[in-house]
Amino acid sequence: MKLDETFPSWRAGSSAWHSAMHHLALPSRGS
């Protein structure tokens, strides 16, 4: 396995996921 290559990609995806969650949370809270 090449974890060294997949880990950075996973971190990038995780950041995008958290960013998306924040965008979804804003209208959900009715700000």
Describe this structure in words.
With 31 residues, the chain is an all-alpha fold. The protein is 87% helix and 0% strand. The protein is built from one helix and no strands.
Strands, count: 0
Question: Which regions are unreliable across 5 or more consecutive residues at pLDDT < 50?
Answer: none
Judging from the principal axes of the Cα atoms, what is the shape?
A: rod-shaped
Helix content: over 70%
Q: What fraction of residues sit in β-strands?
A: under 5%
Largest sheet: none
Indicate the mean pLDDT. Answer: 73
CA-based gyration radius: 14 Å
Topology as a string of helices (H) and strands (E): H
Summary, kept brief:
The protein is mainly alpha-helical and 31 residues long. The protein has one helix at residues 3-29.
List keywords for this structure.
rod-shaped, mainly alpha, 87% helix, 31 residues
What's the arrangement of secondary structure elements?
Elements: H1 3-29
